[in-house]
Structure formats: C-alpha cells, structure tokens
Amino acid sequence: MPKVFASLLVAGVLLAPSLASAVDGYRVQPGDVLTISVWKERDLQGEILVRPDGGVSFPLAGNVSADGMTTEELTVALAAKLKRFIPDPVVTVSVKQIGGNRVYVLGKVNRPGEFMFNRPVDVMQALALAGGATAFAEVNDIRILRREGGVLRSLSFRYAEVERGKELAQNVLLQSGDTVVVP
Question: Which end of the chain is more exposed for a tag (fewer CB within 10 A), N or C?
Fold first, then answer.
C-alpha cells in the first residue's frame, strides 16, 4: 500500500504545475468584471469593469493596464501601487464575470454571430457553435481574421483536411476578437 501512495503522491506533484497553469491561465480581457478588495480596507472593495482599452481604475492605485494579465499579475500590480498609501496591502482580484472572450463567425453558416467562450475554442468548435456550414459554403476557403498588434492577419482553414484528420495544425485555438469567415 505505501508504494501506491508514493506513486499517487509523485503523480500529484508532477501534475500540480499543469493544474496550476490551467487555473491561472485565464487572461483578463476588456469587458470582464473583476472583484477587487484590499484586506481591512472597507473603502477599497468593489466590482470593476475592464474598460475597452484594457485598463481598470481603482481608488489610490489610479489607472492600471489589466489587459492580458492573470489575476495574480494584476494583484501584484495593484499592491505595488497601493504600497505608497498602505503598508503591505493584501489585495485580492477575482474574475466575477467573463465578458471579454468573444469570437465571431460570419458568412455561410446556419447561425452567424458573436459567441462568448470561457474555455479555449478552436475553429471546428466555433463552426459547431454557429450551427455548421450551409450546403453552399466553400468550406475549404475559410479564413480566420486575427488582429495582432494593430495589424490584421488572415489564416487559412481547409475544413475537408481537418475533417479527414490531416493538417490538424490549422485548427488553431481562437483568440478573443477573432473572426471566422465562411465564404
């Protein structure tokens, strides 16, 4: 029995980093609602909406860029700004509502539109959310439009290849703001 326990313990230690990254992997997006509080400071608690520019405003800390940060990173950033006013502030940041993770599916699909997601979604899954392609769609000419650093990129997606289990690398995980266009 001790060997089984030791094996489980080793497995738990090896899996712990991947579990932590899965939990801590969410990145704050514009449109999210955060709950921020500072321990023992009643006036420094509240729900904060992440602005379209990715920033948040918090009393005493001022404006802080939160876009793309994990809650842990934002906690550290806020605590650093609050140290000027509060010795050793204990800051807690949690995501109350996910409102920033959205992808768009347009064109010849059964239900085009905007889709919110709270877990990673790839192209095939986004097409499924949109009810699949219509009979008239050119499924081998699908494009994913992605804005990176202000520059719009176009990625190709050939449905038939992925459906047959080939060229699976093109079934990329979508990022917030991506648009899947089905001609």
Answer: N
